[in-house]
Design brief:
It is a single chain. The chain is of the alpha/beta class. 50% of the residues lie in helices and 14% in strands. It contains 11 helices and 8 strands. It has an 8-stranded mixed β-sheet with strand order 3-2-1-4-5-6-7-8, sandwiched between helices. Helix 7 packs across helix 9, helix 7 packs across helix 10 and helix 7 crosses helix 11. The N and C termini lie far apart (54 Å). The relative contact order is 0.10.
Length: 258
């Protein structure tokens, strides 16, 4: 059975890792109790340190906060990893290309969970096939994309911007409506508030992702103000990390800044 090292078992990474047709390893060193609880529940084998994980893994799957994606890849490269590295973070194509340059074999990946759990993959065709095979007939749909490293990341930036900026706009709309007591009328026009419940616990991840979207927009000649505004909005909610948050609490956080 293929040994897959998972960096790191966050909410999304755990879902992807649990669907792999493989023995999934993870490194508990310097990880939180919440991470350890998720990894244990998913049946992943704790290998101790990242160095030990690199030594024991044939494939490494990186699903980590985007701001540390290059740091994580550099650590893996420095440890001498010569297997297949699947870079599955919400980062710009340029960053995915820099990461690929650090490692002998790298596939660009993006995880999108709107309908099912899709893992888009791009890069060298044979390596894409190897990565996709790990998820054959499982709960993750591994979908090859035309193009090299960068294509999957571009798709994640496009989808993530559309999806999460939409949630930021919904939060903004309800904050305005609440200030004037017209929330029911807003809901009557089809602007649903129920999707806001999940924003608070995830905002700490979404703020840096929106900065990645903004950087890509600037790089391709698009205005970058919209994703940067969404990043600022999500930063106001970062202290809600992994905490259930109702809509009223979320709106309080957005509007009561001191």
């Amino acid at each position: 059975m293929t040994r897959v090292g998972l960096l790191f078992p966050g909410e999304m990474g755990t879902l992807v890792g649990a669907a792999a047709n493989a023995e999934v390893l993870w490194a508990s060193e310097e990880r939180s109790k919440a991470t350890a609880t998720r990894a244990e529940a998913a049946g992943f084998r704790d290998i101790g340190s990242v160095g030990e994980l690199v030594a024991d893994s044939e494939v490494i799957l990186s699903v980590c906060p985007p701001e540390i994606a290059e740091e994580v890849a550099a650590e893996v490269a420095a440890a001498g990893f010569d297997g297949l590295y699947v870079e599955a973070n919400a980062i710009t194509p340029a960053r995915a290309e820099r990461i690929a340059a650090l490692l002998p074999r790298c596939v660009d990946g993006s995880v999108i969970a709107r309908t099912g759990l899709n893992l888009y993959l791009s890069g060298e065709p044979a390596e894409v096939v190897q990565a996709a095979e790990i998820f054959r007939d499982g709960e993750v749909n591994a979908i090859p994309l035309e193009g090299g490293v960068g294509a999957a990341s571009a798709l994640k930036m496009a989808f993530g911007g559309w999806n999460k900026i939409g949630m930021a706009l919904t939060a903004q709309a309800y904050a305005i409506a609440r200030a004037y007591g017209v929330e029911e009328a807003l809901a009557g026009e089809g602007v649903a508030s129920d999707r806001l419940v999940g924003v608070g616990p995830r905002a700490w991840r979404w703020a840096p992702e929106m900065e990645e979207v903004a950087d890509l927009c600037a790089g391709v000649g698009l205005p970058d103000g919209i994703p940067r505004g969404a990043a600022e909005l999500f930063r106001r909610l970062e202290h809600r990390r992994d905490q259930p948050t109702d809509v009223e609490q979320l709106l309080d956080d957005l509007t009561h800044q001191g």
